[in-house]
Amino acid sequence: MLNKIYKNTVVTLTFAAAGLSAGTVAAAGDLVRGENLAQTCNGCHAGEGYRNPGPVYNIPKIGGQHADYIVTALKAYRSKERSHGTMQAQAASLSDQDMQDIAAYYAAMDGKSKPALVNAKLAKLGKEKSVTCATCHGATGNGDQPGFPKLAGQYDSYIVQALKDYRAAAQTQGKEGRNNAVMTGFASGLSIDDIEALAAWYASQEGDLSAPQPKLFK
């Protein structure tokens, strides 16, 4: 389902990258063009529960994700600030406009993340540790700040891997993992128990994410 989308609609978005200035840059995303560009992406992201082969974790739900954040993530893969070979290869050929169109397509999707069955004790610990995260991601991870990702209902294995990658960047001075000043600073102090607890908390929340529907326009 789409949030009031009509064929050939162009939506206006704002871009605010995490860790950068508070200013925004206007960006226009063409939903139909974005759908066409995203068909390759859907090969992995549209499968509910699909897993990355190594390291093994669930490929993230991006239907309903903030458009600004999707653009931020794609630019980070293109610049190799995020070390994932497949995503780097995909992003390398994308222009800024391509990224904005793809982001508009995914962001326009309706999504309702089903709370995952997790260890309740672990999730409770994660809730306690998520107080710092709430500033950017919202109390349950379903925040409305466009430059920061929604986490509520995201796969716990993906959140674990993302936090490990941010921590790895801190440990290797940005040579590995995900190099982001805000998140590497936060993740550098997390133990694996902390990471798994946070992932359990966010995965157990209901949110607006979904695995993308592979074809929305006829």
From TrEMBL:
Superkingdom as given in the UniProt entry: Bacteria
UniProt domain Cytochrome c: residue ranges: 29-110, 121-206
GO MF, one annotated term: electron transfer activity
Keyword Disulfide bond applies: no
Signal sequence annotation: 1-27
Stored Gene3D superfamilies: Cytochrome c-like domain (1.10.760.10)
Keywords on record: Electron transport, Heme, Iron, Metal-binding, Signal, Transport
PANTHER family, alphabetized: CBB3-TYPE CYTOCHROME C OXIDASE SUBUNIT FIXP, CYTOCHROME C4
Protein name per its UniProtKB record: Cytochrome c domain-containing protein
